[in-house]
Amino acid sequence: MVRLFRYFLPPWFLPVIKAEALLAPNTTLEDVFAGFYAWLDQHPTEALLISMKYESGPRRQDTAALQDHLYSVLNSDQAKRYWIQTNGSLGTLGQARGKMTLLQRFDWSKLPSTATQRMGIPLSPSKWTDNGVAIEIVYNTTNNQIAYIEVGPYFMITIYFLWPFSSLGLGLL
Looking at the 3D structure of the chain, how many domains does it have? Predict the structure, then answer.
C-alpha cells in the first residue's frame, strides 16, 4: 500500500500537518520524520509519499536558512536509509517499500549551486495555476514524465503519475 502525508513548512520549523493528529507546539521537522521512520520500521512493506509545501503568509519567509535546514535533514545518514534518493523519478513500488518519496511542492531557490543532492518529484509551485482545476507539471523532462493534478471541491487535490503501463492516483486534502 502507498500512503500519503502532507506537510507544510512554516519558517520556524514548526509543523502544520494535515492529518488526524495533534502535535506539541515544539515539535520539530526531525521529530515528525522520526515518527515516520519508526512507522516504516514496523511496516516495511509500505511506501510513503510525503508532500511538502512552503506555506507563505504574514511574518513567514522562505529563507535560505529554512531551505538549508530541510536540505541537511533530507541528506542526513538517517534520511538516506528511509528516503528514495533519486530526483525526478518515482521508481518502482518494490524500490519504494519501506521508504519515503518526497513530493516537492517548493523550489530550492535559495540553496547554493553546490547543494546537488536533491531528491523527490519536483512539483514547483510556480507551475501550479491559480484556481486551476486541471494542471499538468512535467517533473522529468528527460523521460517526459508528467504529473496530472486535479483540484476539486473543498480543494481536494488528486495527483496522477503515469507510467508506461499503469497509473497511480493520489488524493490529497
Answer: 1
- Cα–Cα distances in Å, from 134 out to 126, 141, 160, 162? 15, 20, 11, 15
DSSP 81-124: HHB---BS----HHHHTT-EEEEEES--TTS-TT-----BEE--
Tell which wins on pLDDT, 161 or 73: 73
Give the phi and the psi of residue 162 in degrees, each rounded to 5. -105, 130
Query: Would you say residue 59 lies in a domain?
Result: yes
Residue type at 63 in one-letter notation: T
Q: Which domain holds residue 59?
A: 2-124
For residue 151, give the nearest of 125, 126, 173, 122 by alpha carbon. 173
Domain contains 144: no
Q: What is the pLDDT of residue 138?
A: 86
Task: Give the confidence band of 156 by pLDDT, cuts at 50, 70, 90.
Answer: low
What's the pTM value of the predicted model, to 2 decimals?
A: 0.76
Please tell me whether residue 74 adopts helix, strand or coil conformation. Answer: helix
Task: Name which of 25, 7, 3, 24 is nearest 16 in CA terms.
Answer: 7
